[in-house]
Every structure is written in structure tokens, then in C-alpha cells.
Design brief:
globular; 3-stranded parallel beta sheet; 8-stranded parallel beta sheet
Length: 600
């Protein structure tokens, strides 16, 4: 069967057993699967929202938003649409992704399955949500097993499947689609490529379990979980990678998203690109990073591209209907405000549930809509946002008022309640990138009440939460607040001169974070370099220098290549603030002492 181009077949044959395909969205766009691109999928979801709101249909809301997103310097991007839907609807939004499950397979899926059967590929990587690869594999009579995320259960299952392979010679396809599942494999180095198993790594999650899916800007900004990054590191170190049906969008802002920057000295990458399309900008970045180990294959995949999947669009329409008109309308208003649509359009969308005083200007009416909209909450994130908004309003009160202390007490209760809800709903802060807002507001309330000690603690926690969640905007806001409210920083009498210098004086406070005493730092599936940066920054909030053990400097690739060196540039400010811990003396085998080492 002609399922891939001859050029691709040649590369696969030359690297049989030592090459891993990375499948992008285009692989599932061939008929009869005919799934849309991510951009087209979001448009379909937006259309299902529009269909529930008559006023939105009158202004062709989906078409209008789509046109604005394509404009240079647009106030709204298509990625902002998913962010708004997720923030308003919470987990209900992710359920629409289940519409991508259970569709017909195409010849490309069947080609991948045929190579799984022969173990040509030791593993498959994909960012696709659909389960067409699994269906194509089952059609060949190959068992498909999905990990549970439970170490004991999964270890027993893998051992059993290996015994079955030894007896029958039939390979097993193992699906891994969540950080917890990847963590199960963390203690099994070398299992990728082991005879009897072919792993399907779905690094953005699976439509069969929408809670595992990565589909918003904030999720992507966090980076991949540490357990997923570990597996990518191993694959890039041991196997060649071939991108098929991928446009490179995930790498546009961060070449290291798939670990290609961190592993540039070992990675070998082939990339299939259509012959008549210009190369995306990321290709030049990959050439600069990988040199001759990056090769572009100009060829087309045989088959009918595109088509209409009526079943998918019917499922999306039903999801829109289940969202109800009110919440569809609220989402439309949020997007209209973000896109800066004409004020008359925003007023029209809000009219059915927001009574406005006649005789006022449209600008004032829009301001009233925005204020009232902020009080409406469906998801846990929206509820927390409303509570944080209440705290902000209370902090804006008159400090000379006789009710000021009472307002602060109320703000304190609300801020504490917001943190309680956030901790209950989102035990992993990566799931709620704006967790830091609750802490920073509590810090400001405590500062107004004169409790600077606890205020500093919650400020530090806010900064750490923003770092751990990969929320760059949150980090910037924390830094701005510290400049405006310097009392939240370490008191001057506890710090040396803030000017960075290259020597340690007796007056300097040097801190050693215990978490750095390990070259394999992992916590809550947070990327290791993010965790290292969080610990380093938190230590610097309370000290002048940070002591770093020699094993971190010498053995931690992430500390050196992703913290000290960021996107190919040396972070010289870190070099001025960290101090390697070196012994003053050491006993040689003969019993003699070498002369003392000088402090760096």
C-alpha cells in the first residue's frame, strides 16, 4: 500500500528500529478521517457558540473574530479564544475535545500501524488528540494497552505483556497520554525500544480523557511536564526523529518546547515539508541549532487531503447547545471586548440580561457591562477571579475612612477564601496559572494591616507560583509590584548593597537551598529548569548570594543549559549571584592535604 512518499520510506528503511515519527495535525486531515486543523477546530467551536446567540449571528460573530485575528497587531488571537472559553467554562470547555475521538482511520494511520506491527518504530510521538492510531493498530489485531498512572498496576501489566510477547511474538502498543502515565515510566530507563513494546506518546493528551488535554495559551506557556521532558530527552538521545504532518507552530515561540534546544548536541531530526510551500521560520532556527543533523524532506503524502467530517461538526453543535445560551452569550461578550468590537455590538450582545440606563453614552454602557460581567462565574477559575476583584475594590477604598480597618478585615477573609478554593480545586498550581494573584493580593492586604513579615512570605509564594506555572506575565507583575511596594522585599538592614558585584563579603547573606542538593529535581510534574529557577529566585529574595553544590554545576544539564544559558544566551546576572561550594582542603590518598582552594 502506498501510504507514505518514497522519500519518507527511504529514511525510515535506513533507520529501521532507530527512528521515531512525530505526528502533527495534518496526518488526521486526510480523507476519510478529515479532521480539521487546530485553527479550524476552534472556529467550529466558536461557530457552535454563535449559533446559540441570535445577536451574534446577526453580526457574523465567528467570521468577524476570525478576520480580526488575522490582522497584524490584532488585540485578539485565535489562541485567546480558547483561553476565554476555558476561563469562563472551566472543564466543560475541555469536553468538546472528546468530539475528536472515534473517527474513521485513513491510509496514513494504517501505514503507521503497519510499522508498529513490525516494530520499525520503537515509539510514536504526537500532539494530536484523536485516537485514530490506536484504532488502526487494533484493526491489525495488535493489542492496545493504556497506562493508568498507577506504578504498581502498570508495572504488572507491562511485565505480563512482555511475557505474552515472548510466548506469541505479537507486539503490544502502549498508550501514554498524561504526566502521571509518563511518571510511571520514569523508573524504567531503556524501556523504549525494548522488544515487544511500541509506545504511543500523546504529549498533549487524548480526546478519550479531555482532562489530560493541553489546549490553551497558558498551558503551553507552562512547558511540558518534567516526566514528559525526561522521555523526550531519552528519545532524542537514542533515536532519530522524523516530523510528519507537522507545521512547527508549537516551536515558533519556544524552540525548546520539544527539548530540541536542550538536546541540540545529540538530536537528529528529519522534517517532511510540502514541496511547494515556503519553509516556516523555525526551520532556520533548527538549522542553526542542529546544523547537518537537521534535514528537510520535500515530498507530499499520497492521499486526498481535507474533506468535511459531518459527524465531528454535529458533535460540536451538540456541545454548543449543552453550553446554554446564557454562557454562550457571556463568552461572546468576553471575546467582543477583547477584540475591541464596536460598542454597539457589545451592547446588543449584552441586552437580554443586562438592563442599561437610557440616555447614557455607549462607552458608559460598555463599562457597566464589563463590571457586571466580572460578577458572573461558572467555573472555579471565574469564581476566584470574582473574589480577587472584590479584594482589589476593597484595597482601593479610602484609607482615611473610619471603615478602613473593617474593609481590610473583609478583604483578608475574601483573599483567604480565594486561596482556600484555589488550593482545593487546583492542588497542582500548573492547572491554574493565575494562582499567584490570590497570594499577591493577600500579601498587599497584610502589608496594609502592618503585618509585613507574613506579607513578604505570601509575596514570595506568589512569585514562586508564577514561576512554577510558567506564567511570564505573572512574574512581570510581581516584579512591578515589588518596585511600587518595596516594603514587601527583604528589609534593607538584612541585605547588603543591592548593586550586583562579583565578590562575597563577610556582610553578605549567602543561602543554600536544600532542594539544589540533587541533580534530578522533580516536583508536581513541574519542568526541572522551571523548578530550579523558582528555587533560585526564591533564595535570592531573602539573600545576597546563593550557594550551589558542585554536582549541580558539573552534572545538571538543565541547570547549565536551560537556566544559566537561556535560548542560547548566557544569563550573566545569574553568574554574579551564584557561588559554587568548593572545599577548602581535601585529603589525598597518600594522606597529604592539597593546598586550600580559593573561593570563586
Amino acid at each position: 500500500l502506498e501510504m507514505a512518499s518514497p522519500e519518507v520510506e527511504e529514511v525510515v528503511a535506513a533507520h529501521k528500529g532507530h527512528i521515531v515519527p512525530f505526528l502533527g495535525a495534518a496526518c488526521s486531515m486526510f480523507a476519510p478521517t478529515s479532521l480539521p486543523s487546530w485553527w479550524a477546530f476552534v472556529n467550529s467551536v466558536l461557530q457552535s457558540i454563535e449559533d446559540q446567540v441570535p445577536e451574534a449571528k446577526q453580526i457574523e460573530f465567528t467570521k468577524t473574530i476570525g478576520q480580526i485575528t488575522q490582522q497584524p497587531n490584532s488585540p485578539i488571537r485565535l489562541m485567546d479564544v480558547t483561553e476565554i472559553l476555558y476561563n469562563r467554562l472551566g472543564s466543560h470547555y475541555l469536553t468538546v475535545i472528546s468530539a475528536l475521538a472515534n473517527h474513521q482511520t485513513n491510509t496514513f494511520h494504517q501505514w503507521i500501524a503497519s510499522h508498529i506491527a513490525t516494530q520499525t518504530f520503537p515509539a510514536i510521538l504526537t500532539t494530536n488528540f484523536d485516537n485514530c492510531i490506536e484504532d488502526a493498530v487494533r484493526a491489525l489485531g495488535i493489542p492496545v494497552k493504556t497506562l493508568t498512572g498507577n506504578q504498581e498496576t502498570d508495572s504488572i501489566m507491562l511485565a505480563h505483556e512482555h511475557e505474552r510477547f515472548v510466548a506469541s511474538g505479537k507486539v503490544c502498543c502502549v498508550v501514554v497520554s498524561s504526566p502521571k502515565m509518563f511518571e510511571v515510566l520514569a523508573g524504567m530507563p531503556g524501556i523504549v525500544g525494548k522488544v515487544g513494546f511500541v509506545f504511543l506518546f500523546k504529549i498533549h493528551g487524548c480526546a478519550s480523557d479531555p482532562s489530560t488535554c493541553v489546549d490553551t495559551v497558558s498551558q503551553r506557556q507552562q512547558g511540558l511536564a518534567a516526566s514528559i521532558a525526561h522521555r523526550l530527552n531519552e528519545i532524542l538521545a537514542r533515536f532519530a526523529l522524523i516530523f510528519l504532518g507537522a507545521g512547527g507552530g508549537d516551536l515558533e515561540k519556544n524552540l525548546n518546547y520539544f527539548r530540541l534546544q536542550a538536546m541540540k548536541d545529540q538530536a537528529r531530526v528529519f522534517w517532511l515539508a510540502p514541496p511547494n510551500f515556503p519553509d516556516p521560520p523555525v526551520f532556520q532556527e533548527l538549522r542553526d541549532a542542529l546544523h547537518e543533523r537537521f534535514q528537510v524532506i520535500k515530498a507530499a503524502i499520497p492521499g486526498q487531503f481535507g474533506g468535511h467530517n459531518a459527524d465531528l461538526h454535529q458533535r460540536i453543535r451538540k456541545w454548543g447547545e449543552s453550553t446554554t445560551e446564557m454562557w454562550c452569550r457571556i463568552c461572546c461578550i468576553d471575546m467582543a471586548l477583547k477584540a475591541q468590537l464596536p460598542e454597539a455590538n457589545i451592547i446588543s450582545l449584552a441586552a437580554p440580561f443586562c438592563t442599561l440606563a437610557s440616555g447614557t453614552t455607549d462607552t458608559h454602557k460598555v463599562a457597566v457591562i464589563t463590571q457586571r460581567l466580572s460578577k458572573l462565574a461558572k467555573s472555579a477559575t471565574a469564581k476566584i477571579a470574582v473574589m480577587c476583584g472584590d479584594v482589589v475594590e476593597l484595597l482601593r477604598g479610602d484609607r482615611k475612612s473610619k471603615h478602613w480597618e473593617r474593609q481590610l478585615q473583609k478583604a483578608l477573609r475574601i483573599a483567604c477564601s480565594a486561596i482556600t478554593i484555589a488550593r482545593k480545586e487546583f492542588p497542582d498550581p500548573r492547572e491554574f496559572p493565575d494562582f499567584w494573584v490570590c497570594n499577591i493580593l493577600l500579601a498587599l492586604v497584610l502589608r496594609e494591616m502592618g503585618d509585613l513579615d507574613n506579607g513578604r512570605i505570601f509575596y514570595q509564594d506568589a512569585w514562586k507560583l508564577a514561576l512554577m506555572a510558567g506564567n511570564l506575565k505573572g512574574q512581570e507583575v510581581c516584579e512591578k509590584i515589588l518596585k511600587q511596594v518595596p516594603s514587601l522585599s527583604t528589609p534593607p538592614h538584612e541585605r547588603a548593597d543591592v548593586q550586583i558585584n562579583t565578590t562575597v563579603t563577610p556582610e553578605d547573606l549567602v543561602v543554600f537551598p536544600m532542594g539544589l542538593d540533587n541533580t534530578n529535581v522533580t516536583s508536581l510534574s513541574i519542568p526541572e529548569h522551571v523548578m530550579l529557577k523558582a528555587m533560585l529566585h526564591r533564595a535570592l529574595l531573602t539573600s545576597d548570594r546563593v550557594a550551589v553544590p558542585p554536582q549541580i554545576v558539573l552534572n545538571s544539564r538543565k541547570f547549565v543549559m536551560e537556566l544559566l544559558v537561556e535560548n542560547g544566551h548566557l544569563r550573566e546576572e545569574y553568574l554574579a549571584l551564584i557561588r559554587p561550594m568548593l572545599p577548602h582542603s581535601a585529603k589525598l590518598p597518600s594522606g597529604k592535604c592539597c593546598r586550600p582552594c580559593h573561593s570563586l
